[in-house]
Amino acid sequence: MKMSVVAALAAVCVTSVALAYDIHHPNIRDALGAADVAIGHIKEAQADNRHVEFGGHAEKAIAALEHAKQELIEADRWNDAHHH
Which residue in 39, 62, 69, 80 has the fewest CB atoms around it within 10 Å? Predict the structure, then answer.
């Protein structure tokens, strides 16, 4: 049950980001989705651990993944500008 909730939330996140920018490269789109799934797993681990933040490292990992998502969007934009 938890995994289906996480997967649904990840799909919503990917959809909301995709609405802001239409990602064209399928591998970049998949990587963005994987980052959302990873964030969901980290948050689930925190919830399962009674919201223990894992010494702050879980929050840092989430922040790094959020930054990676922005870089993926920029990579797709660059690719669009230089290959179409």
Answer: 80
d(CA 65, CA 72): 10
Q: Determine the pLDDT at residue 24.
A: 93
HSE-CB at 11 with a 13 A cutoff on CA atoms is 6
DSSP 52: -
Closest by CA position to 70, among listed 25, 35, 24, 30: 35
Q: φ and ψ at 24, to 5 degrees? A: -95, -35
The tokens of 18 are what?
A: 């995709």
Please give the Cα distance from 68 to 72 (Å, whole number): 6
In whole angstroms, what is the distance from residue 66 CA to residue 72 CA?
A: 10
The pLDDT of residue 58 is above 80: yes
